[in-house]
Design brief:
The structure is a homodimer of 161-residue chains. Chain A is built from five helices and seven strands; from the N terminus they run ββααββαβαβαβ. Chain A has 161 residues and is an alpha+beta fold. In chain A, strands 1-2-3-4-5-6 form a six-stranded mixed β-sheet, with helices on both faces. Chain A starts with a strand and ends with a strand. The model of chain A has no long low-confidence stretch (mean pLDDT 95).
Amino acid sequence: MSVLAELSAGSGTYRLRRATGDDLGPIVELLAADQLGATRESAADLEPYRRAFEAIDTDPAQLLLVAATPGGEVVATMQLTFIPGLARRGALRAQIEAVRVHEQHRGHGLGREMFAWAIAESRRRGCALVQLTTDKSRSAAHRFYDRLGFEASHEGFKLRL
Amino acid sequence: MSVLAELSAGSGTYRLRRATGDDLGPIVELLAADQLGATRESAADLEPYRRAFEAIDTDPAQLLLVAATPGGEVVATMQLTFIPGLARRGALRAQIEAVRVHEQHRGHGLGREMFAWAIAESRRRGCALVQLTTDKSRSAAHRFYDRLGFEASHEGFKLRL
């Protein structure tokens, strides 16, 4: 379980590392604790999540991250996907999905530190662009991404099947 | 060069198929002919595109499509990416990028037919969601996605590196 970075946020420190199968329960709890996730997730049955985790874990284009306290409690997560494309002169792009920080660990810069690492890693892998979408109702998230230098230049369309 | 679908649009028919290396020139011309692409693409040097094409072509999560006339002229393109994730009970999602239809082949339903195929293929692969982002200035595209049943529920943030 190799640590990718030691992150300092407020008076706390966190270890950023690649998620393992053992992190699945805590990650799903973070997803389910979210205002929108509450209706979409169910930690009662981890089986569909476990299948998805296998697909993520065996795909070199995916990087599922967790941040844990020194005591080992998983308190934040994010997923990076590296997508090759022809547009923008064959630019590789990094896409960030499923960002969650436990509410008791918000507001002192942990999310910002995780994004700083993710952006640096995207640059290291040769990406020309980092992109994400966030629900229009998440106004605090919009301010957060604005401050990080992201531009809300696009409409994000979704079609549920 | 196997045909995935025969598409009828207006009085024309088109063959939808997986892109090959020989399609690279025509695809880049489609990308460069676009209002926004004009400043971002350069068909004069195909080398960066060729590297990106290799990455796309060897990745089973990527599906780069072209639609061609019966005479073999490539007149439209789109890229599908299949992304595993934990959110939404471990949902696989399909993402669509780099959609372009030659201006002389617009307005009689070719784009709609390509999307119908892409949505059916996403369903066949078990996706719970199809998603895309489009520049806020592309108002005709917004109406197109609205009509297809997509919901503009998200803000699309981009950070250029």
